[in-house]
Write a structure and sequence with these properties.
Length: 162
């Protein structure tokens, strides 16, 4: 992305809204672009419709296709980030930050007191994102992720208290 596009892109705020069942195909596509174990559109639709799930979608402007999503699952006063992803063309414009800020506020309203997640130890962008919001490392799971090429990667477990 060029410098002007980056500056222009950063100045526009994404449109963030709760996910709807009709977003399921786009969520499955965005998730599958990055994660080795994909989710089918039906799995995504079930998650979005599940009362224990809290999902947000991002668009660069009203009426444009989904360019990012955040899906969390709530259990009592704890929640877990199941997945967060932003389309490659829309990255590094603050979209993940906007979704997470909105998500943390929304989960707080749902009386969540701690938010957990797992992240691959070498996922620099995601680690920066989570540290920005005050997530702290609470554990490590060696060889937790199995990749398509057969290799494994360590997971860091992080928590943020509200
Ligand atoms: C991780 C991800 C969601 C970040 O989305 P994004 O919209 O590009 O992130 P933002 O623009 O809001 O930036 C968040 C932070 O990450 C940093 N960042 C984003 N992309 C980066 C990159 N490629 N390299 C280094 N830092 C990066 C930003 O500078 C920012 O940090 P700051 O607060 O210190 O400025 C996106 O890269 C993605 O979808 N990755 C694939 C899926 C994934 O890894 N999900 C997380 C699984 S746990």
């Amino acid at each position: 992305m060029g410098i002007f596009a980056r500056l222009f892109g950063r100045s526009k705020r994404p449109v963030i809204a709760r996910l709807k069942p009709e977003d399921a195909e786009d969520v499955a596509q965005l998730h599958g672009d990055y994660f080795d174990r994909g989710w089918s559109p039906v799995e995504c639709e079930n998650l979005i419709a599940d009362a224990t799930c809290y999902g947000l979608g991002a668009r660069l402007a009203q009426g444009e296709p989904l360019c990012g999503f955040l899906l969390c699952r709530i259990a009592a006063d704890e929640a877990e980030i199941l997945s967060i992803a932003v389309a490659r063309h829309a990255r590094e414009r603050g979209i993940a930050k906007s979704m997470l800020a909105r998500g943390i506020a929304g989960l707080g309203v749902e009386r969540v007191r701690s938010l957990f997640l797992e992240v691959e130890a070498e996922n620099i962008a995601a680690l920066k994102l989570y540290r920005h919001f005050g997530f702290e490392e609470v554990g490590r799971r060696p060889a937790y992720y199995r990749k398509a090429d057969g290799s494994t990667a360590e997971a860091i477990v992080m928590r943020r208290n509200f």
